[in-house]
Design goal:
It is built from 11 helices and 14 strands. The chain is of the alpha/beta class.
């Protein structure tokens, strides 16, 4: 049964952002979180609809399941049928708050898929492609001229791209966000005096520190079925103990960059920053991007490499930069366009774009072939 008491009703149209709109720094942004295709304004002149806004024309936004002392309630039936939804068609795809709470109770306590040993081995192979050469295990099975060896050394190529864009050297420090097991961090350390490198995975960071400490780390390369070959990590040429000593590895969260900049006195600012296939794996990509003006020195360069593979298991759909249709116009919203708007608003100029392939081995005869978009942004 649906119950509705007399009160201010919802507006029938979903709130959306005008293409020319932007957020200014003096405004505490309550609007953009509501432009997710789920919020509608409360109409009328009650305090419920206007609150303490500066203008009598201001209106608050709500989702239909928002339960407050507002004079209305949306009641979900305990039975599969019959159940009638208020305003049919306007708020499709939403669940009542009760249902969302129930579903959240079934979420695993540790949902970080990157903590497994299998993923650790996969990323050690990605970051150190020379590993296995002593044991006679090739990074990619040779199958003639079509062997995609151009997809190897992906972490190193990302770091090399940053250096090739010639960031202005202020303090000669670099930041590797989502460094995994450190292949890109060591490549950065060849050109920078100091590198801060962090990853959300404690397993990845522990492996990176063991390598840095000089331990001969081994990992398994899958061959077929349950058959694997144990190989030793081999560094790229030019990476020695002196280079590795320039890197500070720590476990961290890319969505907490602003907090690091404000509260960690040793974090500092950087001439170069890289994010390698990370943006579309963050629960809040905008939180990471919003920190860039604070941590990048003037003339510094940010290199972002991403395939824009948005998945709800990593990023709530309301936080996607693109990859969806505008709920009002129906037009496709592309991530690269939104990224350009965000970076330009933060005072960065796009100076480079290329398509960067990478190969991730699953076993001897199966590989992931990914084409990421690599962009370079210089802070003005």
């Amino acid at each position: 049964m649906d119950i509705m008491f007399p009160s201010s009703p919802w507006n029938g149209h979903i709130s959306t952002l005008l293409l020319s709109s932007y957020i200014i720094s003096v405004y505490d942004d309550f609007s953009t979180p509501c432009f997710d295709g789920k919020h509608s304004m409360i109409v009328g002149g009650s305090f419920m609809s206007t609150g303490d806004e500066a203008s009598v024309f201001a209106r608050f936004h709500f989702r239909p399941h928002f339960l407050q002392f507002s004079g209305f309630r949306l009641v979900a039936s305990d039975e599969d049928a019959p159940a009638t939804h208020l305003f049919p068609g306007s708020f499709s795809g939403q669940a009542a708050a009760r249902n969302e709470e129930e579903s959240s109770q079934h979420m695993p306590i540790n949902s970080n898929v990157y903590e497994s040993d299998d993923l650790l081995s996969m990323y050690l192979g990605l970051h150190f492609p020379l590993s296995g050469s002593k044991e006679g295990v090739q990074p990619i099975m040779d199958h003639g001229a079509s062997t995609p060896i151009h997809g190897l050394r992906f972490p190193q190529r990302v770091a090399e791209l940053l250096c090739s864009l010639k960031p202005t050297k202020s303090n000669n420090r670099a930041l590797d966000i989502g460094c995994a097991v450190g292949g890109s961090s060591y490549e950065l350390a060849k050109s920078f005096d100091h590198v801060e490198a962090f990853d959300f995975s404690g397993n990845f960071i522990a492996a990176a520190k063991r390598i840095q400490a000089g331990e001969q780390l081994s990992f398994n390369i899958p061959i077929e079925g349950n058959i694997s070959e144990k190989v030793s990590v081999i560094q790229e040429p030019g990476v020695d103990s002196a280079v590795m000593s320039k890197v500070n590895f720590f476990q961290g969260d890319a969505c907490s960059l602003s907090d690091y900049a404000e509260n960690r006195h040793d974090f500092g600012t950087f001439d170069g920053v890289i994010l390698s296939n990370l943006l579309c794996r963050l629960p809040d990509p905008l939180a990471c991007l919003n920190a860039m003006p604070r941590i990048v020195n003037t003339g510094g360069v940010v290199v972002m490499v991403t395939p824009f593979t948005w998945l709800e298991e990593f990023t709530p759909k309301s936080k996607w930069l693109g990859g969806f249709h505008d709920p009002v116009s129906g037009e496709p919203m592309w991530s690269k366009d939104r990224l350009k708007q965000i970076m330009e608003r933060h005072g960065f100029e796009k100076i480079h774009e290329e398509q960067m392939p990478l190969v991730i081995r699953e076993h001897r005869r199966k590989y992931q072939y990914i084409i990421s978009e690599a962009t370079g942004w210089r802070k003005l």
